[in-house]
Amino acid sequence: MTDRKTQVRALLKSIETGDAAPVAVIDPHRYTQHNLAIADGLAGFGAALAALPPGSARVNTVRVFQDGDYVFAHTDYDFFGPKIGFDIFRFDAASGRIVEHWDNLQPKPAQPNPSGRRMTDGPSQAADLAHTAANKALVRAFVDDILVNGRMERLASYFDGDRYLQHNPQIADGLSGLGAALKAMAAAGVTMRYDRIHAVLGEGNFVLVVSEGQFGGQPTSFYDLFRVEHGQIAEHWDVIEPIAPRAEWKHGNGKFDF
């Protein structure tokens, strides 16, 4: 039986190729959709693919990880325009088929960030598998302390000095780069607030946190991927997506509901 990470890679690639075989991994009777712009169920997924301009889709899945029944992927897309996305799939333990999907998508910038990094480059293979639980606890504590509760006096304790690689398209490497970006946002009157953590998934030294909050006054979904090294945060990728008004939702499942 093909492993789940390989199945997810094939399913995502089928968006580009049109190959129907990988779609069989989805349970047609139990597929809950959390992308608010796509209708629920397998029919909704099919309708979204049918709406793509022929031959326009491109899919390059850069990294895939698994945490129990969840598989999460980081992908460079051309999907109604260039985008970077995180996808999360939940497999049913008994049937081995996908029964639920979440994602977050952000337009892909043309230029690298101030440190020359792009949104998907960097390491892609999980290591330190024996420390998955400890790494998840560390990253959850960081997001809760710093991003949700603003305990900035604890910030430096999560990092090895200024050795911190950043893939956010607007922020330079290091704590100094993060501080400069936050200062610039404050000067421009742009606010960013994390209100709630919805999920923490990890494999080895990679941990993905799904959070909800506000950015520039707009309800927002934050997907943050961290790489941990020697018990400290060493690298960060993210995708930030505004949450559409409820009147525009194609289903009632919500954006989160883990």
Automatic annotation (TrEMBL):
<protein>
    <submittedName>
        <fullName>Nuclear transport factor 2 family protein</fullName>
    </submittedName>
</protein>
<feature type="domain" description="SnoaL-like">
    <location>
        <begin position="139"/>
        <end position="236"/>
    </location>
</feature>
<dbReference type="InterPro" id="IPR032710">
    <property type="entry name" value="NTF2-like_dom_sf"/>
</dbReference>
<feature type="region of interest" description="Disordered">
    <location>
        <begin position="104"/>
        <end position="126"/>
    </location>
</feature>
<dbReference type="Pfam" id="PF12680">
    <property type="entry name" value="SnoaL_2"/>
</dbReference>
<dbReference type="InterPro" id="IPR037401">
    <property type="entry name" value="SnoaL-like"/>
</dbReference>
